[in-house]
């Protein structure tokens, strides 16, 4: 069937890389993204297509108004969206996932961004164009066990926050300034107490301040390390994925992609 193309990757390169492989090999004027576990209802694709054709939207995303399934995982996901909504540089990103549909022009704009560490819902919103949404309640998984573990969800959330928010690095700067001012004031007060003959408790507050500042510095180094790691991944310029086999009766049959 010339209308069907299946890509078999050489290994598991991750959720976002797999989606990117599909998008780069997709043909047609309208392209849809959805997971294969049927948590996102396929019947909504018709409504998304109608919005693109009849209402002239370039991108239509599925907006989750509720979730079925494990409450613990739902709570974690909702917490991530709450954090991302309040600290992210891109607005109107709450409760959007990969489930979406877009025109060829919008997809070309999305694929023009070549970063290696990527969060596709954020990139999809970043490109602009005329964006709409379709609301739905996300269902439980149809069958099988989810491959997106809690660890993978945590890494995906980190990619989203560090890729689309300046808050972590700015938070370090602000907290560092306030910490410096606080301990400068505390040092002045302790000097005054010391020269006035008051008991300063053998300078134990100074020792506590050293411990506190050491802990804060470790946190800051960790945050800076996240940014440095992502910059390093970009400079490596490795392919996002390799294709082991492409099942396709059409004219295109790429064996690997370098972007």
List the helices and strands and how they pair.
Layout: E1 5-9, H1 15-25, E2 30-33, H2 44-54, E3 59-67, H3 71-87, E4 96-103, H4 104-111, H5 120-126, E5 131-138, H6 150-164, H7 167-195, H8 204-236, E6 243-248
Parallel strand pairs: 3-5
Antiparallel strand pairs: 1-6, 2-4, 3-4
Helix pairs in contact: 3-6, 7-8
Proportion of helical residues: 40-55%
- How far the N terminus sits from the C terminus, by CA atoms, comes to 27 Å
Second CATH tier, the architecture of the largest domain = Alpha-Beta Complex
The major sheet is characterized as: 4 strands, mixed
Q: Care to describe what's here?
A:
This protein has a four-stranded mixed sheet with strand order 2-4-3-5, sandwiched between helices. The protein has a two-stranded antiparallel sheet with strand order 1-6. α3 (71-87) packs parallel to α6. It folds into two domains: 5-165 and 240-248, Spore Coat Polysaccharide Biosynthesis Protein SpsA, Chain A (Alpha-Beta Complex), CATH 3.90.550; 167-236. By secondary structure, it is α+β, with helices and mostly antiparallel strands. It has helices spanning 15-25, 44-54, 71-87, 104-111, 120-126, 150-164, 167-195, 204-236, and strands at 5-9, 30-33, 59-67, 96-103, 131-138, 243-248. The longest helix has 33 residues, at 204-236. It starts with a strand and ends in an 11-residue tail after the last strand.
Can you give keywords for this protein?
two-stranded antiparallel sheet; 2 domains; 51% helix; 259 residues; elongated; 8 helices; alpha+beta; Spore Coat Polysaccharide Biosynthesis Protein SpsA, Chain A; four-stranded mixed β-sheet
